[in-house]
Hints:
The protein has about 280 residues and is mainly beta.
Amino acid sequence: MKKNLWIILIAAIVIASYLASLSMFSQSSLGQLNVEGxxxxxxxxxxxxxxxxxxxxxxxxLIGTESGKYQRVAVESMPEGPHREHYNVIDGLExxxxxxxxxxxxxxxxRISQSKENRFVTSEDIISNIENKQVEKPNGINIANIxxxxxxxxxxSNYGNVSNDQQWGANMAIDGNPATExxxxxxxxxxxxxxxxxxEYKVKAFGFWTRxxxxxxxxxxxxxxDADGVELGVFSxxxxxxxxxxxxxxxxxxxxxxFEVLDSTGGNTGAxxxxxxxxx
Length: 280
């Protein structure tokens, strides 16, 4: 039984990877997919897409702000086999925003089809409950701190093009010193920082303290990804006065976390301090 489940799991992953690449092919080479009862719902920063297909199979929903250009993918919970009822979820879409989408679908016998392009608009209150993820400072060791083996794996930029260990460099966000800051070189909403740990941990919570320059450089909202690029959640900050702590919906086993800005006041965005806490 376990062997069969593993075979199905591997097949589903292969099919999902293939489906994600279908938008690059000519539409004439694909069959036409007909879906029934497609519904969009929005809660806690997540967009959920539900629909039914004529035949059982696997699917992904490609999403983008421009027609024919799909930068995001709504994935479905990993099923035990091909199915007709589909439940796809994606985090981090902007509220009250129009998006284009197209559904890619594959049956277990290899037949590939794709829906027509359509549009939907996200709800204004899609992120209204994200703040509920905030928690008190967790107990335990901050594994992102340089003294505890934390290290910078990558960063969008450092102000003045300095190295990570210089003033305004990325190391300033994980040095445990609130008197220092990492500042990007004007990256605004495109700023990101990738922090590695000395080992693989089951991460349960983290802290984030945005820098600010008053009218600019303040981060309002960001998302977090694990070492495999899986999105762990979207989080909103309440000001820049202090570090704010958040819990993950469920602990993530990973050896790094990547923080990507989604919304800010622009300019030299960055962080005063970032902390990460694993389960004991």
